[in-house]
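>> received
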Amino acid sequence: MFSCPRKRMSSIPGDFFKLSKMFNAMRSVVRVPDIDPKYKVAVLASKQEHCLVDFLYGWQEGKLPVEITCVISNHDRGPNSHVIRFLERHGIPYHYLCAKENEREEELLELVQNTDFLVLARYMQPVPLQKEAYLGYKLLESLSSKGSLTSYFNMILSGKFLRSYGKDVINIHHGLLPSFKGGKPAKQAFDAGVKLIGATSHFVTEELDAGPIIEQMVERVSHRDNLRTFVQKSEDVEKQCLAKAIKSYCELRVLPYEMNKTVVF
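>> returned
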């Protein structure tokens, strides 16, 4: 274990800076909070606010080493909502993008160009009902398994967007992957009679809910729980799981390898 005399602790940031100048190192392998700039992130969220609100308050308390450039949503929040008041108080822009499927992804791409990574705090996009009715149940299931749709009613970000953005996107899934992919995982878990429910934070890829997993957390449930308490417990776990994943990522403790695995130390 690395040990350093207390009197030397104050000089460590300066020592790292000298080493970076000596070797012309533009990117840290370890982050020094007082020297390295905070990661710039945009947060994407839909109507459900529990992950977004928890993320904002964690940032306010200094628990998340990020700079929030903006919040983007496909849900129009009123000017007197607590989220909008919070953002205005801290000077964080809020962008409402009303869209069907991914028709405004070019605009979204412009808004996030200067970010280091994106956080999806329960961000989903609705599929038009006429498309759902036209394609039918089985074909939608097929599309969902290929990453085009997250469920019959929702989709996330397209492969074209991910390739154009070219940086990491971190999502929180309200289920314990690889089980219960797609929409309404709490109901899927409830119907399956599970004894543990959970949440998964993972990198977003073109394949639905199949990106490398960063963090997972679980909560015990029993026959005494109903669907409402399943959802409540799931939401509590989601908030913790997303915050821990973001913190680990910002501290450079997440190392992806192979196709869909990570080392988190």
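>> Residues 143 and 152 are 9 Å apart (CA to CA).
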